[in-house]
Design brief:
The chain is an alpha+beta fold. About 15% of the residues lie in helices and about 30% in strands. It contains 3 helices and 21 strands. The termini are far apart.
Amino acid sequence: MFLLPLAERHRRSLLLGLLLAALILQSWLPWKPLQTLGNVCVAPVAAITMPLAGRVVDRVDPRRPADESGGATSEFIEVERQQGQPQPVAGVAWLEIPVFEHRRLEHKLILAAGANYGLAVDMPVIFGRTWLGRLVEVKQYSAVVQLASSAAVPTSVLLQSADGSTPLRAVVEGRGNEGSPLLRWIENRADPKDAAPVQWRAGADDLPGLAQLGLRLGLAQFAGDVLRGAGFWQVDFALPAGAEGRVFVPAGAIAESTVAEPQIDFSTAHLALRVDGVFGAQLCGLRTLHDGIPSVVLNEQTVLGKVVAQRGNLLWCSLLPPQAWHNEALRLSDLGVVDPDPIQLYSRGDSTVPRGLPLGSVDAVAPVPGDKFWALTRVPLPPEGEADAE
């Protein structure tokens, strides 16, 4: 097809403009097939250039490896531990188990310990004076807690009657995401007292002495419309903020340790690029000294930012101000204690980011890279194919 020179130039300009727009769109909204293809094409070149780039960085900016002691327990974790530790019970040892993941939609907690710490199915799970639920699945290195708010999960309880007579026996039945758990099969001797504490009732198979703790699920509340015959009782069950980090399980026989510390993989790192060539001061480049896939970087003892990309031992870290963490950040006051420093934020944590890392004050600006860095991530749970504990 014959095109005039001017039309040919217009066509080339249009094609180049579309290509540039596609590249800009890909940088902001990555298209997975194209990104995978790019990684496959770049990987052979990166395998040669990355080690050479690391040597150049060492020559230009030599740094001694930091002392590998970057796993200090933060103030947040210590307060959380004190809040969750139940009162002593004769003949009972409290196992402190970290929470690996909170599956909110399923009303479950995935614990980062299992039969290796003496856990077994149907064992109670507690935080402070709050009854959380029971273990429904236990593997060698993990376990699943079914919360009392889960759909169709029954929990035997006691609650005060309106006339102040002997406590009424009832059953709390969870409704999952449909609403608060219901109070069912209440003894018909009297009506419950509004806003009365709903106390967990021990069963025949539970360890002796647990009933004296007075464990609670919440407060009884009357809801619905009595005139239309739609009135019912429910419980304002809520998971304590600290229970997202660790829970406590009573045991008569224990393993070598009663505290299952969260497993964190960490590596020392040093600065490779103080700013990114495209995003400027929003990103910085670092090089780790050990293999791994980190999720967050500490600058001394404060979070520098999240890892957003990695190629070999080089990684790029986002430099976000503490308030940009939004619902991924917590204060000490969220644990129900008096916060001496209410503007200090800590990481909520998830299956990759460790919990309780200091983020800085809420009014702080984006952090500036310093000298010593730690690249951290939570150690993943073993594959699902492992055998269940008996």
